[in-house]
């Protein structure tokens, strides 16, 4: 009898979603007469499915919805989105804690807490931030949005499955990074498909609230998605929003501190025993830090001498770039930005498989906690030559968890290894934008926009930046690389953690 009652209620729900009214629809009355046959069919179906019942009609944790959509239609009513946010946060925190084998936070912020924090940050930074949870479920794609001071809004798209999303991300990677396609726009098809799945359903709400900064909390298969390259048919996502990716809101450092007078520690290597050389690294460090030619860093021939190093700090190259040296420097020096120009790779398997390459050894991802990143707190850790195993869950967790695992507030890293000169161009412009932007995400946004519009470019051995031109020595000028507007050169770089 309980089973019959359950199906009777389910039948009523189906009628309701189809638009049939209680008293004004003759079709409804005819369908009601068919209820006994429908119930009998449902019971027989359940008895023949090895006890699985109608579990497939619920959306994972979203059984509160009672009915999953049967097409691409978005159905969000009857879901308690506050509860959903809390549940997703809890589950994803557990995923990261299992991967890193440690307790990562005791924070238990709820959806109303998050909305209030966004409102406070909005006032401090003069931005309009929003958090978007993108949750691939077997029964469909779940989107939940929280904007400053507002209730969460959610949608379920039952026609978008996790396999489709993973395939879309891999296709996008292949089109973006294929050397033979750097003069084409073949990436647009997968880029637009992913935009339509993830952004288009909430686009009207973002525009109505004038959101300008998006924090993406991404589920499995999407954590290494190059967000900025998503395309609406006219513009890239980076042209509309400053972006960052977070593992979970409860795993973020929520404090806001301007970086205007921050000291920078810039370290790197141009030569390696078992890795490809990075000949542009000395020039990359010199464009960032004004260290008066200290520690063997080469000074660049720039039209305006004031353009050489943009930030106060120290630089160390090759033999000065060791794990022990970094530990000593962080133990007593008040650096707030650490820039590491070197190879880094996020690999499948345990955190110990992923590494940052130093001059004489590799620093494993699970060893990041050995450093004093928190006292004083490091606002920004930059890894300028990373690559990540696309589509692997563990590699995704390592990459997306880089900021909180190291203890820094925000990390800037690349999803794939970009050319030496392309990296030099982006980093040089980013640090210039960082001096005047209200947030790190805004600085990266402006940098990437300038690259895609051709304002940051290479031309006849010179690097054109917003602050002037840099003449590059012949040994780091790569033939055939002049136009840096293709997303291959800028879309790989992404913020992880706080956008502020």
TrEMBL record:
The CHAT domain is annotated at 189-498
Task: Name the source's superkingdom.
Answer: Bacteria
Kindly provide the name given to this protein in its UniProt entry: CHAT domain-containing protein
Query: What species is this protein from?
Result: Planktothrix tepida PCC 9214
């Amino acid at each position: 009898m309980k089973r019959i009652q359950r199906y009777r209620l389910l039948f009523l729900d189906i009628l309701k979603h189809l638009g049939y009214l209680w008293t004004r629809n003759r079709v409804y009355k005819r369908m009601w007469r068919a209820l006994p046959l429908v119930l009998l069919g449902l019971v027989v179906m359940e008895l023949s499915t090895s006890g699985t019942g109608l579990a497939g009609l619920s959306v994972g944790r979203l059984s509160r919805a009672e009915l999953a959509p049967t097409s691409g239609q978005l159905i969000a009513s009857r879901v308690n989105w506050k509860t959903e946010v809390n549940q997703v946060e809890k589950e994803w925190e557990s995923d990261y804690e299992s991967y890193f084998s440690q307790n990562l936070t005791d924070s238990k912020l709820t959806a109303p807490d998050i909305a209030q924090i966004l409102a406070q940050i909005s006032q401090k930074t003069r931005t309009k931030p929003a958090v978007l949870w993108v949750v691939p479920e077997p029964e469909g794609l779940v989107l939940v949005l929280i904007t400053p001071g507002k209730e969460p809004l959610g949608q379920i798209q039952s026609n978008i499955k996790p396999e489709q999303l993973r395939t879309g991300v891999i296709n996008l990677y292949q089109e973006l990074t294929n050397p033979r396609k750097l003069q084409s726009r073949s990436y647009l098809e997968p880029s637009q498909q992913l935009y339509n799945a993830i952004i288009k359903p909430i686009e009207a709400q973002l525009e109505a609230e004038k959101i300008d900064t998006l924090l993406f909390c991404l589920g499995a298969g999407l954590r290494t998605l190059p967000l900025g390259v998503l395309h609406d048919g006219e513009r890239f996502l980076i042209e509309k929003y400053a972006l960052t990716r977070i593992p979970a809101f409860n795993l973020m450092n929520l404090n806001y501190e301007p970086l205007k007078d921050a000291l920078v520690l810039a370290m790197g290597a141009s030569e390696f025993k078992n890795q490809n050389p990075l000949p542009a690294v000395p020039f990359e460090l010199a464009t960032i830090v004004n260290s008066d030619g200290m520690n063997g860093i080469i000074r660049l021939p720039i039209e305006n001498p004031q353009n050489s190093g943009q930030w106060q700090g120290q630089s160390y190259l090759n033999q000065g770039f060791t794990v022990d040296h970094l530990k000593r420097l962080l133990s007593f020096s008040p650096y707030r930005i650490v820039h590491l120009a070197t190879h880094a790779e996020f690999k499948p398997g345990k955190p110990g498989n992923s590494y940052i390459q130093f001059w004489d050894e590799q620093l494993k991802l699970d060893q990041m906690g050995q450093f004093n990143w928190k006292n004083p707190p490091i606002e920004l850790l930059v890894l300028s030559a990373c690559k990540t195993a696309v589509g692997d869950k563990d590699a995704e967790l390592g990459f997306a968890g880089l900021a909180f695992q190291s203890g820094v507030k925000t990390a800037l890293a690349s999803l794939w290894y970009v050319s030496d000169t392309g990296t030099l161009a982006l980093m040089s412009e980013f640090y210039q934008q960082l001096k005047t932007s209200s947030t790190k995400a805004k600085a990266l946004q402006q940098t990437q926009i300038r690259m895609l519009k051709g304002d940051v470019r290479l031309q006849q051995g010179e690097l054109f930046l917003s602050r002037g031109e840099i003449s590059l020595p012949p040994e780091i000028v790569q033939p055939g690389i002049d136009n840096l507007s293709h997303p291959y050169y800028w879309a790989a770089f992404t913020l992880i953690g706080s956008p502020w």
